[in-house]
Write a structure and sequence with these properties.
Elements (H helix, E strand, L loop, with lengths): L1 H13 L19 E8 L5 E2 L7 E2 L7 H15 L9 E9 L5 E7 L6 H14 L6 E3 L2 E3 L1 E15 L1
Antiparallel strand pairs: 1-8, 2-8, 3-6, 4-5, 4-8, 6-7
């Protein structure tokens, strides 16, 4: 029995009493869960750049200004990706309309760092709505025109 006790005591000294935990051994079971929500409003009226002629008729969206805003808001909800950017403030969306009534190009002002993703998403939303305007006319002949819509963006973040 004495031999057995000595053997047991000797084997216990070979075991480590503590295990040193290093930082890379620790794994957290929690993840940070948060969400960004971008809200926007278009309470400002649609503004037209002045045409330099006497009998100017400005470009019109089928259904009027409210139909244009509602369609744009609906498409922006589908195409703005809130995971890539947070945007706050009032931006001006300047739309150039061709003589045929098609969307020619657009600008987003002011230019801010990394606004190219927001610009891309707004352009995609506009292209998907396929706006066909009644073109502006000067003295009865169609001309190129520009219009401006101010959009107020607010980014809200919250934890889940």
């Amino acid at each position: 029995m004495k031999n057995f006790l000595i053997l047991l005591l000797f084997s216990a000294t070979l075991l480590q009493a503590q295990y040193l935990v290093e930082d890379n051994d620790i794994s957290e079971n929690t993840t940070e869960a948060g969400k960004l929500a971008i809200s926007y409003d278009m309470n400002n009226p649609l503004e037209f750049y002045r045409l330099k002629c006497e009998n100017a008729v400005y470009a019109q969206f089928p259904g009027g200004e409210n139909a244009f805003k509602q369609t744009l808001l609906k498409n922006m909800r589908g195409y703005l990706d809130t995971g890539f950017y947070s945007v706050n403030g009032t931006f001006e969306l300047i739309i150039n309309i061709s003589k045929n009534g098609n969307l020619q190009r657009l600008e987003l002002k002011p230019e801010v760092p990394n606004s190219n993703l927001l610009y891309r998403d707004i352009e995609l939303a506009l292209r998907k709505m396929n706006p066909k305007f009644t073109p502006a006319t000067c003295n009865g002949s169609p001309v190129d025109s520009k219009l401006r819509q101010k959009i107020n963006f607010r980014t809200e973040s919250f934890d889940l």
